[in-house]
Every structure is written in C-alpha cells, then in structure tokens.
C-alpha cells in the first residue's frame, strides 16, 4: 500500500489538502467550487498553493469559517497516512469548535496553528463551557506561534463580578493521550485558559498564558482526573491559580515555570463533592513565583466529604514578594459564605516543602491551617528560608510560622523565617 504524506491548510475559506505520492495531487475545498482534486507539478511535500481569485475572496462569516475548520479536520482525521492540520498566519474569528477523534492516521497527528484565533466576545455565543476542544485522541502534537485570544474583558469578567461566573474555557484536552502541546499562547480567557481532563501522558512545553491580575476565575492550566502530566518551561500570569491540580490527578510534574501575577501553584480545591478520587504523586520544582497572592498551596473546602491527597513535593521554588508563600488551607472559602459547621475530611499526608526561599509580604511565611478532624500527617520542611519584606515595625508584628488544627508528624530542618 502506498504511504501518503498529508497536509491540510486553512486560509480564510480555502482549505488545501496536499497528497504526496508518485503522482502528486492537490485537493482543495472552497465555497465557490466545493471539494476538488487536480494533478500538480513537482513540489515540496509541504508546499501550499493559493489561488489569486480565492485569496481575494471576502472575509468569511464566523459560521462559514467554522464549517471550513470542521471539514478540514474531518478530512485530516480520517486520512489513513501521515496527516497534518495547518492554520496559516492571520487573524481568525472562530466560535466554539470541537476537534473530535478517534482519528485513522498512522502516525502522530500534527496540528500547527500559526495564525491567531479570536473568540466571540459574547458569552451567549457558546452553547457549552468550552471554546476550542480536542477530545478522544491519541498521539497528537499541537504547536505553532498562535495566540488564542479569549476576549474575557469585554463581557465575561464583568458578569462574573456581578453574579455567578459563566466559565468558558479557551482550550480543553479531554480524553487525550500521548500529546505534546508546545509554543502556543493563550490570553484573556473567559474562564480557565487551558484544561486537561481525563487525559494521560501529556507534555505542555513553553506555553505562555496571560490575563490581568484581577480577571476572575482565569486559571492558567487546570489538571483534572489526569495522569503523567508534565508542564515545563512555561510562563503564566493570570487572575487565579497559575496551575491548579484537582481531583483524580496522579503523577503530575510542574517544572521550570514562572507564575505571577496569580494565586500560585495550587493543589485543589478538594472536597467540594462526594466520592472525589485521590490526588497523589504531585511535584512542583524549579519554579518562580513573583508578586502572586499565594506561593504553593493546598486547599480543601470546610465541611467536605472524605477524600485524600498524598505524596506531594514542592522543591526549589523562588518566592519574590509573595503573599502566603507556603499555605495549607483546609478552610478554603473564597466566597466567605461556606458551610463551616464541620471540618474538612480531606486527608493530607506525606507533603514536603524543600528549598523554598525568597521574600513574602503577608502576615505568615508558613501557614499550616489543617483540619481539626482529619489531621495533616507527615509534613516536612527542609531548607526553607523566607524573609518578610515589610518594615522593621511590621516585621515584629508578623507571625513567621503558624499552625492550626490537627497535625501529626511535623518536621523542620535547616530552615529560617525572618
């Protein structure tokens, strides 16, 4: 059977499918002529041809452009050879779109997005809580110089501050395995910027995420029910958690990543609903937190049902003027109106804070606010050196190290809190 190299290009309404075989074929789709194939002369496997008449076509509507993306994805996903989905340079206004698998490709499905994708500003334009999603896929490589612009400042953030937030996540990977996400940017999402859900073996590398410090619920990367996740060499500055790792997540590594502004690197929140899956083997290392509301944090709801989080390590973290650099908060209640009639039943154990250094501006350098019922167990601090950056008078009033609730097995080695 002949192997084909397959590339797909979206340019306004023009979609080119280039097949490389002993006889090269150019296939394209446009709104004027539909889908067609014709022989072309010798060319590179990745040469893109643009018809002048089509280049001059009017700007497509959002609906038409969505249709073009969907048709292109369907063709790429169903191709049995090598396949690549490519969006060239430019700016594209794109509504909610789902790239669904499984695909029939024989090797890694490449998705290269060079142009910037811009979301509609109205929340009503989204039938669900997602903008761009990839689902039910195995072996995918998503990369490019694109920026996914969410436009949350126009409507979503304002409505969120007045009432319950209608969260629309900019990019979702759901039930995806063996994936690499590299060199893309996301900005001003209406809700979470990037969510990994029920996914496995995913590497996120050199991703840039940004929104203002006061943009509500704009987590940078949220990991939920996923395993073997590697987030590395990325830069995140948002209005909520830079990285949040939630229920059912196992074997997650965050490294070489800068956070700020934002709410730091967080485990949780945990314990909001019954029968939550455990969180285990999480490591955050070689990271910097600059000007964030929290540094490294574990948060669970009060009056929460039983669950557990264990084997968590925060190692080699530089804090620069951070509030709450080390924070276990088992009374997490951002709204201020939670049920506090009983303590959190989320069990936290085997947690290590190692080589954490820098400056803080809050009342506490270390705040271990544990449950009064489900005791924190085996909490270790090694080589933790934190300095308050307030005036001398204010420093005298600071509590450097605070513990509340039940705590079984606290060890502190070679650490200073000034």
TrEMBL record:
Keywords associated with the record: Cell wall, Cell wall biogenesis/degradation, Glycosidase, Hydrolase, Membrane, Secreted, Transmembrane, Transmembrane helix
Name a biological process GO annotation. cell wall organization
Localization recorded for this chain is:
Secreted, Cell wall
Asked if the keyword rRNA processing belongs to this entry, the reply reads no
Top-level division of the source organism's lineage = Eukaryota
SMART domains per the UniProt record, alphabetical: PbH1
For this protein, the record's InterPro entries field holds: Glyco_hydro_28, PbH1, Pectin_lyas_fold, Pectin_lyase_fold/virulence
GO terms for MF: polygalacturonase activity
* Gene3D superfamilies associated with the record: Single-stranded right-handed beta-helix, Pectin lyase-like
| Membrane-traversing stretches | 6-22
- A Pfam family of this chain: Glyco_hydro_28
**Does this entry carry the keyword RNA-binding?**
no
Q: Which family does it belong to?
A: Belongs to the glycosyl hydrolase 28 family.
The protein's name in its UniProt record: Exopolygalacturonase-like
Gene source species: Brassica carinata (Ethiopian mustard)
